[in-house]
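Troubleshooting log. The previous structure file for this entry was overwritten by mistake, so regenerating from the original sequence record. Sequence copied from the archived sheet and checked twice against the printout by T.R.
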Amino acid sequence: MALLSALTAAGANLAATGETRFFAAEAILNTDRVEVVEQETFSGYQGVTLKDGVASLATDPDSRDPELTFWVHAPAAGYYSWSCVTAVDEYGKTLMPKWTRLGTEFSAKILLDDEPPQLLTIFSPWRNEGKNTNSLGIIRLTGKRQKLVMQLPRGVRLESV
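Regenerated output below.
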């Protein structure tokens, strides 16, 4: 089983074994909603976040509008584990003490092809606010090129998925 720790717009094939990493700043970005920002704690020193004044669509059950789009091609059909690297900005730091296990403040909406959307926690507020690696569980990939769309929560910066 390959470890999928990030997804990118370049459409690169996933490695047959080991880890493949894709960076959010290289994704296809909806520049009306998101922007690339500096983040010193990230290995590439960049992340993607919602623009100031833009409301998060992640908890809107009817929205499927892409903010970040990644093209993924797994070496074979199967189940892959995946994770993301995130940090919070000043607004995100204010949410940390208020967060509950069932809260959605740090959840992104993930859409893979035409499957139903998933709301997944991409930042764990009990960890390092400057750089946080969070497991997203298991994803089923077809072995063919697939479209993965994300909608971000307010206050979170995404380095890679």
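Confidence is low (pLDDT under 50) at residues 1-12. Archived copy saved in two places this time.
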